[in-house]
Amino acid sequence: xxEPRLVRLARHLERGVTPICQALALLGAVAGSAIVxxxxxxxxxxxxxNAPFRFTEELVGLLMTAAFFLVLPLVTLxxxxxxxxxxxxxxxxxxxxxxxGLAALFGIMFCAWLFWLSIPWFEFAFARTIKTEVARLLxxxxxxxxPVSMVLTALAFAIRGAVRD
Length: 165
Description:
By secondary structure, the protein is mostly helical. It is built from six helices and no strands. Helices cover about 80% and strands about 0% of the residues. The model has no long low-confidence stretch (mean pLDDT about 90).
């Protein structure tokens, strides 16, 4: 039996968006590694030179947030996040299909809402070239990750809602 057009479109979109999500996830892994390296170097500087890096907490916070939002689209696309499937497994296939579709719709709505809320904050930081207090890092590149992540995550929810593997 041939796949419905929506499923074929979703699979095509999945093939196109997967490399983008994988590249972002790789950047997220680099950010996670940078956190470990930065904290290790700061601890070493504190004990060896009695002079810890003063910007560690600030940069680690930015890297942690970046890592989360960089990895989220791939985790959603591959449906590898934490799931409670007890209820879903107890339902008939048809009702489970409806529940999965509703879950995807709620995910898309949440991503749209967060995207909508993040744009004014990004524009504010960009227009005023706001920087962090200690390290004096521009904030807008970090803040740009949120809307990009939300668009890709919403697309991943839509794909997962159409393709139920």
